[in-house]
Amino acid sequence: MAPAKQHSVFLLLCFFITKLSPVLAQTKPVFACDLSNNPGLKNYSFCDPSLDVETRVSDLVSKLTLQEKIGWMVNGAKGVSRLGIPNYEWWSEALHGVSYVGPGTKFSSVVPGATSFPQVILTAASFNESLFETIGKVVSTEARAMYNVGLAGLTFWSPNINIFRDPRWGRGQETPGEDPLLASKYGAAYVRGLQQRDDGDKNRLKVAACCKHYTAYDLDNWKGIQRYSFNALVTQQDLDDTFQPPFKSCVLDGNVASVMCSYNQVNGKPTCGDPDLLAGVIRGEWKLNGYIVSDCDSLNEIFNSQHYTKTPEETAALTVNSGLDLNCGSFLNDHAQAAVDRGLLNETEINRAVTNNFATMMRLGFFDGDPSKQLYGNLGPKDVCTTENQELAREAARQGIVLLKNTEKSLPLSPTLIKSLAVIGPNANVTHTMIGNYEGTPCKYTTPLQGLTASVATMYASGCADVSCGTANVDEAKRIAATADAVVLVVGSDQSIEKESLDRVDITLPGQQQLLISEVANVSKGPVILVIMSGGGMDVQFAKDDPKISSILWVGFPGEAGGAAIADVIFGHYNPSGRLPMTWYPQSYVEKVNMTNMNMRPDPTTGYPGRTYRFYKGPTIFSFKDGLSYSQFNHELVSAPKLVSVPLEETHVCRSSECKSVDALEENCKSLGFSIHLRVKNVGEMSGSHTVFLFSSPPEVHNAPQKHLLGFEKLHLVAQEEGVVKFEVDVCKHLSLVDENGKRKVALGEHVLHVGSLKHLLNVRI
Ligand SMILES: *[C@@H]1O[C@H](CO)[C@@H](O)[C@H](O)[C@H]1NC(C)=O
Ligand SMILES: *[C@@H]1O[C@H](CO)[C@@H](O)[C@H](O)[C@H]1NC(C)=O
Ligand SMILES: *[C@@H]1O[C@H](CO)[C@@H](O)[C@H](O)[C@H]1NC(C)=O
Ligand SMILES: *[C@@H]1O[C@H](CO)[C@@H](O)[C@H](O)[C@H]1NC(C)=O
Ligand SMILES: *[C@@H]1O[C@H](CO)[C@@H](O)[C@H](O)[C@H]1NC(C)=O
Ligand SMILES: *[C@@H]1O[C@H](CO)[C@@H](O)[C@H](O)[C@H]1NC(C)=O
């Protein structure tokens, strides 16, 4: 375009922007009970913040017509102007920063970007619970700030706490990994960070989080099998000891304000239309204080893809009667009235649903009038992308990055001794790739190349046009590698390889990336550092075995400051402390195992190898919790019991006959716990953080896992410093397992506790 023309277009744009600015640039938050505009609202109890939520909600619901209520059962909720209630968009996202996915949030010239933290799988690798919560807190502050200028909602459909069951899953990147305990702790901590208010008022919310996708959802689109109609066949045992625990913890420990049911079926029933899973478990057993929402358009999928129901009205009735409160999509808006007219759905159920929805909005202050007069009312654009927040994004990436190989201490590189660094690979200078999916516009980016160039002189060759790497451009890469003092290769995947609606078939590095790496390594004279940027694990056995490749780092999708964090680790400004939150399988695993097989436990009769470190015994590329440090940490057991007795009444059947396990019921386990003390010493030369993992191998009863995580604790130790770590073990909660019928049991006999290479025998008896 010619410059003169550009000028006139610019003028024209200015004209339009000036003319339309009140419409284009929204700067006010949406809220109900605006007394300054409508003093009559003062007469309504639902607008009175001094009353309790229950009273206010029942007042409001009593004033609404059936049609008005139905309008509040979908994400694009319809305002009721006669009562001073505006339209409200329920769908916002904040998986690892305020996101533009979902119509409730937008960036504009007022807030052009928000802090983009690492994709969750990398944050999980930090194994630092306080980091999980701190990130949540910063994200909710930025979210509130954006709400205050009309750019975001108050209800965020994050986090994703599904178990990363299969390495091919395109959404594994969004999750905290394969372990139920880690996923539970991550979910509860992130939710607390998002929701908890600084005034400590437990019934009110800073923003409302949502734990998704309930349940046994971890297949998107694999060899033509689609999540919309996939029927996950799950045993009661796997459901209760693998898939459900993160959701239970999210509700009970995190006090989350919402749970989202998934697209798939579980054992033949769509999750959003299963009264046992929704009304029974979430509402009945766990007592959710909040709303149950469907995944987007999943009601339509129940009817149109699954053909589970005969009519749309039947679908609407089934889901609401099962306990669904809010529908992402317009299905209930279109069909709930007809379902009522046909007698399939009654107003009592609709009242229940909107009561849950409105109660959440009340707890958010939406019905308290002008937000600028409330707590968080002074937050605004100045509180988004602050220096501190962006520093936390860099810190989170540093804490998550996992060092997987480091022969002859080739890392850290010395920024003074390295005069020239060759930086090579399709992910070496990427921006958007670093922030993964469910992203927002970041404050800014620091690419790996930029991060490294800040410390030393670099030469750069991408080596491949993109991560697919159809044909590697090896010559240019080899030329710069041959002359450099050290080589950093940044490879891996991006959203074209693994994402929502795209599961992988192969788990090797795409295209000719391996060729590029091997050829570059072969000509390099100094250390070769392989940096893998990906969500899921990669079969990089060749790189583990290649003596020319001295170090391997996994950096997840490290967020907006990823390049700075990578450089911090490579040059030793930060001592790596991340540990893998998932097993890295060889390619042969995915060739042998169907992604559709939901079983966690191996089946010797078919040769099915099982899944995750808890059950899978076959070869791995890297294992759950793998990760090296530039330092070394020794563990020593200070105290742990050798014996635990479960008290049982005299008449208990296990007193007269041999039992392999006893029920983990309140009366047997009341305060049945013990503590384990460990001394940890940093015996290396560098300060660093270290995660202590406490595992247990239970006796072999009830198809128990070979090993499971009871707890983890991260501590920071300077060189030669010693620290003490204490685990409080609740026998019924932590040491128990789930039997074939989904019942929690304490196995009797010898439990082997592991910490690093330490083993300690614990006898559990009656
Ligand atoms: C509010 O209620 C008072 C007392 O019931 C009544 O006098 C007044 O007219 C009401 N105001 C409006 C605006 O409805
Ligand atoms: C409304 O429907 C529910 C679920 O079908 C049923 O349990 C309840 O008894 C009904 N209530 C009324 C008032 O009809
Ligand atoms: C690296 O990426 C940045 C940001 O996209 C870009 O400005 C820069 O030109 C790239 N550097 C090279 C050497 O290609
Ligand atoms: C490595 O380089 C040598 C020559 O320097 C060559 O003979 C060999 O084939 C190369 N190996 C690979 C794997 O490229
Ligand atoms: C995988 O699934 C396909 C299709 O259902 C089936 O034919 C095949 O036997 C399964 N393979 C294994 C190893 O279970
Ligand atoms: C955990 O994260 C917090 C918050 O960023 C940080 O202050 C702390 O040092 C971390 N803990 C360890 C042991 O590294």
From TrEMBL:
<dbReference type="InterPro" id="IPR036962">
    <property type="entry name" value="Glyco_hydro_3_N_sf"/>
</dbReference>
<dbReference type="Pfam" id="PF01915">
    <property type="entry name" value="Glyco_hydro_3_C"/>
</dbReference>
<keyword id="KW-0964">Secreted</keyword>
<keyword id="KW-0732">Signal</keyword>
<feature type="signal peptide">
    <location>
        <begin position="1"/>
        <end position="25"/>
    </location>
</feature>
<dbReference type="InterPro" id="IPR036881">
    <property type="entry name" value="Glyco_hydro_3_C_sf"/>
</dbReference>
<keyword id="KW-0326">Glycosidase</keyword>
<dbReference type="InterPro" id="IPR026891">
    <property type="entry name" value="Fn3-like"/>
</dbReference>
<dbReference type="GO" id="GO:0005576">
    <property type="term" value="C:extracellular region"/>
</dbReference>
<feature type="domain" description="Fibronectin type III-like">
    <location>
        <begin position="690"/>
        <end position="759"/>
    </location>
</feature>
<dbReference type="Pfam" id="PF00933">
    <property type="entry name" value="Glyco_hydro_3"/>
</dbReference>
<protein>
    <recommendedName>
        <fullName>Fibronectin type III-like domain-containing protein</fullName>
    </recommendedName>
</protein>
<dbReference type="InterPro" id="IPR002772">
    <property type="entry name" value="Glyco_hydro_3_C"/>
</dbReference>
<dbReference type="Pfam" id="PF14310">
    <property type="entry name" value="Fn3-like"/>
</dbReference>
<keyword id="KW-0378">Hydrolase</keyword>
<dbReference type="InterPro" id="IPR017853">
    <property type="entry name" value="GH"/>
</dbReference>
<dbReference type="GO" id="GO:0000272">
    <property type="term" value="P:polysaccharide catabolic process"/>
</dbReference>
<keyword id="KW-0325">Glycoprotein</keyword>
<dbReference type="InterPro" id="IPR013783">
    <property type="entry name" value="Ig-like_fold"/>
</dbReference>
<dbReference type="GO" id="GO:0004553">
    <property type="term" value="F:hydrolase activity, hydrolyzing O-glycosyl compounds"/>
</dbReference>
<dbReference type="InterPro" id="IPR001764">
    <property type="entry name" value="Glyco_hydro_3_N"/>
</dbReference>
<dbReference type="InterPro" id="IPR044993">
    <property type="entry name" value="BXL"/>
</dbReference>
